[in-house]
Amino acid sequence: xxxxxxxxxxxxxxxxxxxxxxxxxxxxxxxxxxxxxxxxxxxxxxxxxxxxxxxxxxxxxxxxxxxxxxxxxxxxxxxxxxxxxxxxxxxxxxxxxxxxxxxxxxxxxxxxxxxxxxxxxxxxxxxxxxxxxxxxxxxxxxxxxxxxxxxxxxxxxxxxxxxxxxxxxxxxxxxxxxxxxxxxxxxxxxxxxxxxxxxxxxxxxxxxxxxxxxxxxxxxxxxxxxxxxxxxxxxxxxxxxxxxxxxxxxxxxxxxxxxxxxxxxxxxxxxxxxxxxxxxxxxxxxxxxxxxxxxxxxxxxxxxxxxxxxxxxxxxxx
Length: 318
Description:
The chain has helices spanning 2-9, 40-45, 130-144, 153-166, 176-183, 188-193, 220-241, 254-260; strands at 12-13, 17-18, 22-28, 38-39, 49-53, 62-67, 73-75, 79-83, 88-90, 94-96, 100-108, 121-127, 200-207, 210-217, 265-270, 276-282, 285-292, 295-303. With 318 residues, the chain is α+β, with helices and mostly antiparallel strands.
């Protein structure tokens, strides 16, 4: 936890920015370096990155990723990939080494399709919804103890189906993509409202009157490129939460929440690709981090409603 704790202690908490659906507390780091990798969207556009099925027949939990460029490529946990035989989301943050092909763990977010739409994948404009990412992270943390990042595919499908029903966004193939497509216009104001500052490397997102989570990158240039994806991930949940009760309010003291993250339990593993990966957990929280070159490249800690103890209720079994 040392590199995570040191990074968190070096952050500055800026005043909140309020949108229609979200309130965002920027996290600043004036000494943050420039990124030493490319994001997937840039590498795909430059044709140095290929993301395909693992074989012609395909395999639901695994994709083949080839980086033919001279720079590592960063793919984010929860990032949706659209195309090939069915849409997927990443089960881990991955730094793909240069001049290499690796197998990357994923979950399907389109249960009703298993035929080629395109040979290659493209990245979506969003990350998986915040609640779905938290559930998936918790499940992957459990299976990783047995050497697998598979998580629970059934739980992912169940979550998407229930969310699509609540949000009137059912599709013929059960695609998560339809939820975002149906409600994208409603989230436009928040997309445009949150403009990253020159030293901003992260944010704490407040949704429905409680803290939804922290999202952190190692460089302002990287955070600026992924901020809209993060806003959509949290904003789609803000719309959903308006239609159903929440289990409890979040902490009022955002600074105390930030300090509490230093004490999360961490389980460390060799990462897929470059670096080391941590899986994090605390009361009502779940998260993941990628450390490479002694830098905290990516950190996500999310409120985990499913594992949060509720007074007078028996905790749901994992």
